[in-house]
Write a structure and sequence with these properties.
The complex is a heterodimer of chains A (295) and B (178).
Chain A: E1 9-14, E2 19-28, E3 31-36, H1 46-57, E4 63-68, E5 73-81, H2 86-95, H3 97-101, E6 108-114, E7 122-131, H4 132-145, E8 148-154, H5 155-162, E9 175-181, E10 185-192, E11 195-203, H6 212-230, E12 238-242, H7 245-259, E13 262-265, H8 283-289
Parallel strand pairs in A: 1-4, 4-8, 9-12, 12-13
Antiparallel strand pairs in A: 1-2, 2-3, 5-7, 6-7, 9-10, 10-11
Helix pairs in contact in A: 1-4, 5-8, 6-7
Chain B: H1 13-67, H2 78-106, E1 112-120, E2 123-130, H3 133-145, E3 149-159, E4 163-171
Antiparallel strand pairs in B: 1-2, 2-4, 3-4
Classes of the chains: A alpha/beta (295), B alpha+beta (178).
């Protein structure tokens, strides 16, 4: 388990229509003390929302991890020679950035992590890129709001970190699909052996004609279809739904009835929380606060 | 828990790290240059001080020999004067030879060994062994400073279990104050 110092963090999830945050402090080896902020709906004035969250969390200059959503990033899986150094890999990615990401390297911030380390002479890398302007803007915002920014991560990866803390059917824990119900989008994330193999974010529109349940199901089916196209032969999987508790329950019932999947609404294991259970809408923020540098 | 999982960081930390690495290399390069220059200056100072020491030693030797100079005999006879002139001439030659041979022996660096020293008329040949060739050059340079030695040339130098060398010199008998 990580040390106390590494887990005294704040994770801020920056959605397009919401900002959510969790402040995490580590007191004993088995207990995480989480202070969850209220959700702030502030699409236009992000800085004010960040300052409000800072006050709400009683921020004490902890390292802050900012999570951005999938639509702001470009994620690629590539394979390279295994004997290349980190600098050489980065140099390769920068020279190939136009081909890989469609933008010049000077316009992007690129990071990568090795995913599969097998015996073959090639190594698989998961490469994530984001627009440099956008990242610089976020850095300025966090600085203005008074947060000590430690990292900018993707929310899809933060969900993977929170997975070991969730109550789930352990017999199917190797193949899990996480669905996070966001205010205007549905984040679909497939994890196999603790490695993200597929992630997509499907937007949905709030119309008065259709019930919310139907809109969410339609978005889920679209994401599921994309997943089936990308990964056609998948065995039985566990589907965990995160997000608004009421809609998560409704979604779980409908999907369980229609698709014969093992579906559960995500809740946090009691051993990690001595008091109340964390709102499932804040799991991505918790995952962000659990960020730890691989380098 | 977290270290085995994905930890993407889109802050430009790799660029900052590369910049730090570049700065560290620059500092190391700068320190290396300063250290190299200091070593060069130190070496130069040490060579000049060694030359100065050698010249002082040869001067001291000359003074020592001068103390033992024979007095001119007060006999007025021509034959005696001729003999005395001959004696003086022999003495001068002898002193020059003595100064040369003593200087060759006494100024030999501590890490050098004199293997042979031969003399024929005004030519002397010396051979020896040294730990480093730089010491030989310094040693021969020092010999050139001695007034009783007209010229010294390095004849041969080769390395085999140490640096072996041989040098040839010429003794000067003229216009010297010994």
């Amino acid at each position: 388990m990580p040390s106390r110092r590494t887990l005294s963090r704040v994770g801020i999830e920056l959605c397009r229509h919401q900002i959510r945050a969790v402040r995490l402090s580590w007191t004993t080896p088995e207990t995480l003390h989480i202070h969850a902020s209220s959700v702030v709906d502030a699409p236009s004035v992000v800085l004010d929302a960040l300052i409000a969250i800072r006050q709400c969390l009683h921020y004490q200059n902890e390292a802050t991890i900012l999570g951005i959503h999938t639509e702001e990033t470009i994620i690629k899986a590539i394979s390279l020679e295994a004997n290349l150094t980190s600098t050489e890999k980065m140099a390769y990615l920068q020279t190939q950035s136009m081909y890989l990401f469609g933008h010049a390297a000077s316009e992007l911030v690129i990071d990568f992590i090795p995913t599969v380390a097998d015996q073959s002479p090639r190594e698989s890398l998961l490469v994530v890129a984001a627009k440099r302007n956008y990242i610089d803007h976020l850095i300025q915002l966090c600085k203005a709001a008074g947060f000590r920014l430690r990292a900018i991560d993707s929310c899809a990866f933060s969900l993977q970190r929170v997975l070991p803390l969730l109550c789930k059917n352990d017999s199917l824990a190797e193949r899990v699909i996480l669905i996070e119900l966001l205010p205007r989008a549905l984040l679909f994330c497939a994890i196999n052996n603790r490695q993200i193999i597929f992630t997509v974010e499907v937007d949905y529109a709030m119309t008065g004609d259709l019930p919310m349940e139907a809109i969410l199901l339609s978005a889920f089916h679209r994401a599921w279809q994309l997943f089936q196209n990308a990964q056609p032969q998948q065995e039985k999987q566990l589907l965990l739904i995160l997000g608004h508790p009421q809609w998560a329950c409704v979604m779980a019932d409908r999907i369980r009835a229609d698709m014969h999947l093992v579906v559960e609404v995500a809740t946090l294991k009691k051993i990690y929380l001595p008091s109340d259970s964390l709102d499932s809408r804040l799991f991505a923020s918790l995952g962000l606060a659990l960020w730890e540098a691989s380098s | 828990m977290g270290s085995k999982l994905l930890s993407i960081n889109l802050l430009p930390w790799r660029e900052i790290q590369a910049k730090r690495r570049r700065r560290r290399h620059q500092i190391i390069g700068l320190l290396g240059t300063v250290l190299g220059m200091a070593i060069l200056i130190g070496l130069r100072f040490s060579v000049s001080s060694m030359n100065y020491r050698l010249s002082l030693q040869s001067q001291a030797l000359k003074n020592e020999i001068r103390q033992f100079a024979l007095p001119v005999l007060p006999y007025p006879k021509n034959s005696m004067n001729h003999d005395m002139a001959m004696i003086q001439k022999i003495k001068v030659r002898h002193e020059a030879l003595l100064v040369t041979l003593i200087t060759v022996g006494k100024t030999l660096p501590t890490r050098c060994q004199l293997l042979a020293l031969k003399q024929w008329k005004d030519i002397f040949v010396l051979s020896g062994r040294c730990q480093a060739s730089t010491l030989i050059y310094l040693y021969l340079q020092g010999l050139k400073q001695v007034s009783a030695i007209q010229a010294v040339t390095l004849q041969n130098i080769h390395s085999s279990h140490g640096v072996f060398f041989s040098a040839r010199g010429k003794i000067s008998y003229e216009n010297k104050h010994i």
